[in-house]
Write a structure and sequence with these properties.
Structural class: mainly alpha
Strand content: under 5%
Pathway: Cell wall biogenesis; peptidoglycan biosynthesis
Shape: globular
Strand order of the largest sheet: 1-2
Largest sheet: 2 strands, antiparallel
Mean pLDDT: 80
Radius of gyration: 23 Å
Oligomer: single chain
Organism: Thermogemmatispora tikiterensis
GO molecular function: lipid-linked peptidoglycan transporter activity
Function: Involved in peptidoglycan biosynthesis. Transports lipid-linked peptidoglycan precursors from the inner to the outer leaflet of the cytoplasmic membrane.
Order of helices and strands: HHEEHHHHHHHHHHHHHHH
Keywords: Cell membrane, Cell shape, Cell wall biogenesis/degradation, Membrane, Peptidoglycan synthesis, Transmembrane, Transmembrane helix, Transport
Length: 502
């Protein structure tokens, strides 16, 4: 496998390893947590796709990408609601999205990213770029084969899964539509999974511009599918369904120029005993199980919702979750994704004092921002729903039910954000077992809360059993993760000090 050397211009544009400490320019401060940022580095210019960014610069880029994505997502959802409202086609579409989304996140989503980045970073730090690209190619090939086999199996089992597990309470006609849409969407995990490797490589090299753009461009494909449904008679719900596949393809294409400029070289490698692959798998398997536990909760949510007395409940929960997840994406995902490569480098170098300070900064910032966001959503939720969604088939009852579900989610916004950031911190320490155990704890807590609230509440307010159970379990898990992380870092730093003393 050949390797293209990094050009002098590219090397000049890269920040030094201590970018976090050496970045100059205006500062960014939140609740007394000051982090450096150079605004000049965010300007467009020659070699912009090769620049490395500090944690704050990367977080800002990702936040801008997510804001653009969510802005387009609002347009997409408003158009979808105007066309399909909360009727049977909409509910079939939302239900059909569950299995492909679960498979992607289970095999190739955050689990793979969190397992791949620390190992890829360690190979880069050894200075052997040839081996680093070999590892990337090997992981890509294994993922391609695994996803292809999994999706073929998914197509075969979709009817039984939809009828007996996913939406057993739906009428047969809606179940049949859900089956057809699910089989089409099953191509999405394959496309997104391969794109995840590209995103992880660029993130490992602290280059976040095109990954941020890829986040924003995803909704362009979805909107294109809805436009087709709007202008072509008879397409109906199949328009946005095919738009899901177009969106996944666009996410890959937009990142390829930066990957090529990195001197990436693909080789068909197949060595299941390769040490780097084994190291990735050692982190990936517990991470995958943690995601699986979380998505068992998601499937359980859909199953319970199908029995709620109001048939618009699933669509209402989807709309509420979309609004709730905007600040989660902006805060937890952007900060966590930006900080993970830096955390992995600090852990690799044994700089635990600096690592603890970085943890405090990202967790403290996440907490403050999420509390402010929760207060804003609680006060302005119904107004936002009216402005964005109350059009066409989305009526007053749909708006009221969506706001009710949103209230239950908002309660747990700080817990969800902090828990996501802290979980990524454990992956930087190459510890995937702790997030797995806390996810099991959160699942058991959520089931208990959901059952209790479902019995206690009545009528249309039973929808709160779904959203409040998520809030309660996520908050409990976040607290547990913070306590364990703080203890773990104190132990590592103490052992390091004792070793130096000896």
């Amino acid at each position: 496998m050949s390797e293209t050397p990094v050009t002098t211009e590219a090397a000049r544009l890269e920040a030094p390893d201590e970018l976090e400490e050496q970045a100059t320019g205006s500062g960014w401060s939140l609740a007394g947590l000051r982090l450096p940022i150079s605004l000049a580095r965010l300007r467009p210019g020659r070699g912009v796709t090769l620049r490395r960014f500090s944690v704050v610069e990367a977080a800002l880029l990702l936040m801008l990408g997510i804001l653009a994505s969510k802005g387009l997502g609002v347009v997409r959802q408003a158009l979808f609601n105007a066309l399909f409202g909360t009727g049977p086609e909409a509910n079939a579409y939302y239900a059909a999205y569950r299995l492909p989304d679960t498979l992607f996140n289970l095999v190739a989503g955050g689990a793979l990213t969190q397992a791949f980045i620390p190992v890829f970073v360690s190979y880069q730090r050894r200075g052997d770029q040839r081996e680093a690209w070999y590892l990337a190619s090997l992981v890509f090939n294994v993922l391609l084969v695994a996803l292809t086999m999994l999706l073929l199996l998914g197509c075969l089992l979709t009817p039984a899964f939809v009828v007996h597990v996913l939406v057993p309470g739906y009428p047969p006609a809606v179940q049949e539509l859900t089956i057809r849409l699910t089989r089409i969407m099953l191509l999405q995990p394959l496309l997104l999974g391969l794109g995840t490797i590209v995103t992880a490589i660029l993130s490992s090299r602290e280059q976040f511009l095109l990954p941020a753009l890829a986040t924003a461009i995803y909704n362009v494909g979805l909107i294109a599918g809805l436009v087709v449904a709007l202008v072509v008679p008879g397409v109906g719900i199949y328009g946005p369904t095919l738009g899901v596949l177009l969106a996944a393809a666009l996410q890959i294409v937009v990142q390829l120029p930066a990957l090529w400029q990195q001197g990436a070289r693909y080789v068909f490698a197949w060595n299941l005993r390769y040490p780097g692959l084994r190291e990735v798998m050692a982190l990936f398997i517990p991470s995958m199980l943690a995601v699986a536990v979380a998505y068992v909760s998601s499937i359980l949510e859909t199953t319970v919702t199908s029995f709620l007395p109001d048939l618009a409940s699933l669509a209402a929960l989807h709309n509420a979750y979309m609004l709730f997840y905007l600040p989660v994406s902006l805060i937890a995902q952007a900060i966590g994704q930006a900080a993970l490569p830096r955390m992995a480098r600090l852990e690799l170098e044994g700089r635990y004092a600096r690592l603890r300070r970085l943890f405090v900064q990202v967790i403290g910032s996440s907490l403050v921002l999420s509390v402010l966001s929760a207060l804003a959503l609680a006060g302005l939720g119904l107004l936002v729903i009216d402005l964005l969604f109350r059009h066409g088939a989305f009526d007053d009852h749909s708006a009221w039910l969506t706001n009710l579900a949103l209230f239950g989610y908002v309660v747990g916004l700080p817990g969800v954000c902090v828990g996501d950031v802290v979980a990524r911190s454990f992956y930087a320490l190459k510890d995937a077992r702790t997030p797995l155990l806390t996810n099991v704890f959160a699942l058991l807590t959520r089931v208990a809360l959901m059952v209790g609230l479902f019995v206690w509440l009545s009528g249309e307010r039973q929808i709160l059993a779904v959203s409040l159970s998520l809030s309660g379990s996520a908050s409990a898990e976040a607290l547990l993760l913070c306590l364990v992380l703080w203890w773990r870092l104190r132990q590592r730093q103490r052992r390091q000090v004792q070793g130096v003393g000896c």
